[in-house]
Amino acid sequence: MCLLLIGPPGAGKGTQAVRLAAHLSIPHISTGDLFREHIDQGTELGQNAHTHTRAGLLVPDEVTIGVIKERLTRPDTERGFLLDGFPRNLAQAHALDDILAYSESRVDAVLDLEIPEDQVVRRIAGRRLCRRNHEHIFHVDYSPPEVDETCDVCGGELYQREDDRERTVRKRLEVYRTETAPVVGHYQAQGLVTTISACGQVQDVLNRSLVALGYGQVDVAGTSG
Ligand code: ADP
Fold first, then answer.
1. Which residues, including other chains, have CB under 8 Å from residue 62's CB and lie 6 or more apart?
2. In the annotation, is 161 catalytic?
3. In the annotation, is 54 catalytic?
4. Which of 28, 48, 52, 205 has its CA 20 to 30 A from that of 42?
5. Is 88 a catalytic site residue?
């Protein structure tokens, strides 16, 4: 299954993507995480990405599409994958359609996470990531770690993303409205989009997503219902 998760920054795409991918047994591919890995490793691609991410701007398409193209050639994607943060504009959506058509595949479903902008700013201001694994995401109020500034999962140090400061968040929201929202329209025209409210508890949003995809709900212990 080729599943896309779209939504503004702070909608909880990363949080939901990790859980959904585990439930569906497909890899979670986040362009944001791939860029952060490059930035941490100080690669040339990372340096280029950093100049854009820190300003709240999109990384240029040729770089982003190249990164995704390479990632989708790895064998773990053969049975499907969940894309989080890609495509983020119409050029990327067309590139993805072409990449998939080449392997006689297509996008199967798109989940569009919706959330009011005032909630986005509150969520993002408290978000903390683990330095060792960017999939370990916390929030100082909504899902605080047991020990301050320390990841519950692996003991890594928690930090605030440079692009999570308020001014940059406002810029990212503007870019979302102008560049990414049309991507939803592109897939709506193909009847692939389900819009989900991203408000409320992580578990509630996950259940809405699973129901939208035709799966049963998951109870808090994590077994299928
Ligand atoms: P969020 O969805 O919370 O904004 P991400 O981790 O998905 O955060 O992305 C962080 C940043 O990485 C984006 O603001 C952008 O600069 C860059 N980025 C991620 N995905 C893409 C993409 N598909 N195209 C261009 N830039 C991207």
1. none
2. yes
3. no
4. 28
5. yes
With vertex at residue 106, the alpha carbon angle to CA 88 and CA 79, rounded to the nearest 5 degrees, is: 100
**Per-domain residue ranges for the chain?**
2-26+79-212
Q: How confident is the model at residue 165 (pLDDT cuts 50, 70, 90)?
A: confident
User: What number of other Cβ atoms are within 10 A of residue 119's Cβ?
Assistant: 14
Which residues line ligand 1 at a C-beta cut-off of 6 Å?
A: 9, 13, 30-32, 35, 52-53, 56-59, 64, 85-86, 88, 92, 163, 172
- End-to-end alpha-carbon separation of the chain, Å? 21
> What atom in ligand 1 is closest to the CA of residue 68?
23
Class of domain 2-26+79-212: alpha beta
The string of pLDDT tens digits covering residues 108-153 is: 999 999 999 889 988 998 999 999 998 999 999 989 999 999 999 9
pLDDT per residue as tens digits for the range 28-69: 999 999 999 999 999 999 999 999 999 999 999 999 999 999
Distance 129 CA to ligand 1 centre (A): 15
